[in-house]
Design a protein that fits this description.
Layout: H1 43-57, H2 64-71, H3 75-78, H4 85-96, H5 105-108, H6 115-132, H7 134-140, H8 148-162, H9 171-199, H10 203-216, H11 218-223, H12 225-236, H13 241-268
Amino acid sequence: MASSKRGGAGKAQTSVWLEGGKPAPKRKAGAGVDAAGGGALDLERIVTETIRLLDAEGFAKFSMRRLAAALGVTAMSVYWYVDTKDDLLEIALDEVHREMVVPDAAAATDEAADWRAQMRVLALEYRRLLSGHPWVAQLLGQYLNIGPRSMEFSNVALAVVRRSGLPFEEVTGALGAVFQFVYGFCSIEGQFKERCRATGETEDEYFERLMGQISDSGALTETFHAAAELVETQQKSRIPLSERRERDFLFALDTVIAGIEVMRDRASV
């Protein structure tokens, strides 16, 4: 069986996408059949089940043995299609990028189109991806993320921000401002949701309890007046936490995009 670790003796693999540019099934005669002798296996089915398990149980609980059991095959059968667990996770990471609905290449380079609106769409779709699949944020820091669907998204984002009028050397900084903001926002959001699930409370129940504990802490409220005022305001709000979070995200996103315009104009002076 191939190792579940990337690389190995005499091999320093950095990405499955650099191994010939495309992950290729390694199926041999008789491989990839479930324990009952039926249900032919293929890479698409493996990746689909991988994504389902990651969504349902999270990255920490995922294993090739767990995947094989869900597929009804032996663990060895899965390795006919991928060399390592890392390869499979990298393929799954790229596959979920398919879900994002973004401007096509022609629209991204259309000078008549509003680059601000297109950048907003890209950021919202990226948020939808990260919020819908919390494990994606964990994997993005571990892999190069240079699969075809991810690169398509990156190329569109680059084309859009270049139309903002920023000097070329500032384009990557602008992209970082937008997408690292989205990544950070969604990562914290995902961790908060996981904390709520662990307590068995809804987000609003957990948040209300937490705010109550902070209010009851005299030391905190007496020392940090601005924070205490914010807590009091939020306690009085009847708006669901999810709606407040969405409002904050959209305001912050518009602020970042407006900041790109400010920096562009400053560079042109």
